[in-house]
Amino acid sequence: MNLQNAMEVLRKNGYKSTGRRKDILTFFEKADGYRTAKELHQFMEDKYEGISFDTVYRNLHLYDEMKILESTELNGEKHFRMKCATHHHHHFICSRCGKTKEINICPMDEVENKLENYMIEDHKFEIYGLCPECQVA
């Protein structure tokens, strides 16, 4: 998903296109991997002095709910990134810097065979570790 697509999703759901919303989405569009609410707050504080954590969290959860952002739990904290909309895939996530790498395999074929007569509604498969840059740091 890109900024234009994300703003269209918001508009279709009755939300106004504001500068703050665009700036939040631009932050994630440019990010290489998952980012925290704290990192977003620091970014927004430079432009919107005094912006509250509540405003940041409210928008993050709105975007997550609308499938504009996707979230994961990393080191006990929720992290967000712009939703990938191109094709079905999973991620390796660096537990130190949050960078991601696509994994173009899915274990669900095997799982579905083991869960005959069950209805699977969704799934998430992530692998955590250190990226090459963080291994040498």
TrEMBL record:
Binding sites annotated in the UniProt record for Fe cation: 88, 123
Compartment(s): Cytoplasm
Cofactor note: Binds 1 Mn(2+) or Fe(2+) ion per subunit.
Cofactor(s) listed in the protein's UniProt record: Mn(2+); Fe(2+); Zn(2+)
Pfam families reported in the protein's UniProt record: FUR (PF01475)
InterPro entries: FUR, Fur_C, WH-like_DNA-bd_sf, WH_DNA-bd_sf
Principal localisation: cytoplasm
PANTHER family on file: FERRIC UPTAKE REGULATION PROTEIN, ZINC UPTAKE REGULATION PROTEIN
The name this protein goes by in its record: Zinc-specific metallo-regulatory protein
Organism: Oceanobacillus indicireducens
